[in-house]
């Protein structure tokens, strides 16, 4: 871990000369200088950092700085960056032709591997992002049930398609027709009786319940004991399709996803991020009778020029193969346990109003004296304190997601030494801000 001496420290805000210049220049051509708003430093302030290389647990920026990475590219880098087996598989596949627009063996191989890893997915279809996976699963559930309403949970994020952004939560947007909003119902997360009442009030009209089994965008919120079982039971009672959005948790919290941790059998599951080993992937899968409603067998339309392309499939197969080794999850658990023990010791010793929340290798450092179990509680997080902490950490060579609520990620490439350095950096940073 090192921060280049030419990188100036300005009022505790990280400053890299070349990154600052490039941030200003790119904003002339790309709105806000980013291709996805999460990447902007709107919440934490300062300029974005331009990276030019990543390896293992490390990111390297254009100013010569090296960071220990806990963004993990927002989820995909579960094994770390530039994993030799994944790189080799992708290079070989690229040389043989990156896209055919027709079936090939790698598609079959990855579909079979997903189905083996996640038994609720009898069939799978590949797409190019988590957004596409969720959008397609929602349409499929509506087509299958011949109903329009979907129920979602405050503070859960499911990508940027109209029907799932049509919420009152932080991820809402202008430009969504009122009709979309009318077909999306919102209930609080971790509150089974609210879901029960909503289903009762809309009996016979709900196509699907769409849920993140672990909420990753409001401070890494685990489901309360028995909550997901109750959600599953309500869906069965009302003949409603249960869709698990495992775009973030899939492969990450366990090879079989959160559904294997909590013992749930969703009707449909969405994947993305870690499944592709760094390639742009999405997938949705589930019950055979529901999946067979898709064109060309059924009447639910869904398509994609690049869907299931060989390059992406090669990245996915190499990644899932490596995730077969139990040691990968053991390593991530060891790092997460070490990190949390070190951080908790600092928090207790200094009696800080900071909480740690995690499930497996997904974690959040929350600037709130109280635990966060739902979206409303996440609104009490002290984002200003987090912003200061964020820059203190950048100045010490630690890169977290630039957001007080989004999940940070430990990879299998993090070492004990990385974790020790991170704990030390957090200790120093917390001393600066409290
Ligand atoms: C739970 C969840 N679902 C869906 C998405 C959307 O995935 P993508 O950004 O690949 O479209 C995300 C992305 O952060 C996510 O965390």
Could you characterize the architecture of this molecule?
This protein is α/β, with parallel strands linked by helices and 434 residues long. It folds into two domains: 8-81 and 326-433, Aspartate Aminotransferase, domain 1; 84-323, Aspartate Aminotransferase, domain 2. Helices cover 38% and strands 15% of the residues. It contains 15 helices and 16 strands. The strands form four sheets. It has a seven-stranded mixed beta sheet with strand order 6-12-11-10-9-7-8, sandwiched between helices. A hairpin with a 2-residue loop joins β3 (51-55) and β4 (58-61). α2 packs antiparallel against α11, α3 runs parallel beside α11 (310-323) and α12 packs parallel to α15 (416-433). It binds pyridoxal-5'-phosphate. Pyridoxal-5'-phosphate binds at residues 74, 129-131, 134, 157-159, 212, 216, 245, 247-248, 272.
Task: Name its key features.
seven-stranded mixed beta sheet; alpha/beta; Aspartate Aminotransferase, domain 2; 434 residues; binds pyridoxal-5'-phosphate
CATH topology type of the largest domain: Aspartate Aminotransferase, domain 2
CATH H-level homologous superfamily name of the largest domain: Type I PLP-dependent aspartate aminotransferase-like (Major domain)
Largest sheet: 7 strands, mixed
Low-confidence stretches: none
Small-molecule components bound:
pyridoxal-5'-phosphate
- At CATH level 2, the architecture of the largest domain is 3-Layer(aba) Sandwich
- Strand segment tally: 16
Give the CATH class of the largest domain: Alpha Beta
User: Structural class, from secondary structure content?
Assistant: alpha/beta
Helix content: 25-40%
The largest sheet has its strands arranged as 6-12-11-10-9-7-8
Mean pLDDT: 95
Output the radius of gyration. Answer: 21 Å
How many structural domains in the coordinates?
2
Termini separation comes to 24 Å
Helix count, DSSP H or I runs of 4 or more residues: 15
